[in-house]
Amino acid sequence: KILNAGTARVIPSLRHGLSAGEKLPASIEDNWKKATGTPIYEAYGMSECSTFISGAPRRPAPRGTLGRPQPGRRIAILGSDGPVPIGTEGTIAVHRSDPGLMLGYLGAEDETRDRMRGEWFMTGDQGVMDDSSSITYLARNDDMMNAGGYRVSPLEVEQALSDIPGITQIAVTDIAVRSDARLIMAFYTGPAPLSEAELARLASERLASYKTPRGFFHVDALPHNPNGKLQRRALAQIYEALHDPS
User: Fold this and answer.
1) Looking at the record's lineage, which domain of life comes first (predicted)?
2) In this structure, are 40 and 64 located in the same domain?
């Protein structure tokens, strides 16, 4: 609400903001700082586990990362064969002994078992840990995009394009254009449609070729659930509606 007011606010009692629920966009982080003059820290958790990765005043998260595992929390990045090397993509996992982790899904033992791998609870989110233990969030496992055989994080593409003048919000996903081909497409809101050629040019300056969207579509609104979270998989339905000859 502070940001939507469109003016800077001096709130003497405000020391910082806290963001949780979904990945904090860089644009909101920057606008918060401009509007309030205070930092905003991110906390990562889920319904199954209280927040366990975060930044804090005494140890801010490096730009673009969620932060570091909180003291006393055992967090790992796992691949199919166990922990992956530093700097390698994998699934964010929480040790089953974590005090904030659920006991299980009520009346759903099979679902609970499916989320465990040995001693680890698999969050279903992809991430990378660096040598300072900071963790970068990439996407939900099923939101990761396949572009010409390369795995691409939609957040990386969105963050690269979100500050283009005329774009209010942007979301990307990969769309099946043939049975054997998927292409990255971008959907954005803003006061008016922008030149697709100019958007493609700007994207090519900021992203590797295989990460660059192959189509840009101006829409009235992006799909969100009642909690305000982006419904990325609904973007395919928007694409189909835009290309429906009827």
Assistant:
1) Bacteria
2) yes
Residue 23 lies in a domain: yes
This prediction has a pTM of: 0.78
Determine the number of helices (DSSP H) and then strands (DSSP E) in the chain. 5, 15
In a domain, 72, yes or no: yes
CA–CA gap between residue 137 and residue 198 (Å, rounded): 29
The span from the CA of 128 to the CA of 77, in Å, is 7
Q: What is the DSSP string of 225-242?
A: -TTS-B-GGGHHHHHHHH
Name the percent of the chain in helix, strand, coil, to the closest 5.
20, 35, 45
DSSP state of 78: E
Residue 2 lies in a domain: no
Answer yes or no: is 1 within a domain.
no
Do the strands 17-19 and 49-54 form a parallel or antiparallel pair, or are they unpaired? unpaired
Residue 145's contacts (CB-CB under 8 Å, 6 or more residues apart) are 139, 151, 152, 153, 154, 157, 172, 173, 174, 182, 184
Q: Which domain holds residue 185?
A: 144-242
Local structure of residue 45 (DSSP, 8 states): E
Instruction: Give residue-wise pLDDT tens across range 60-113.
Output: 999 989 999 999 999 999 999 999 999 999 999 999 999 999 999 999 999 999
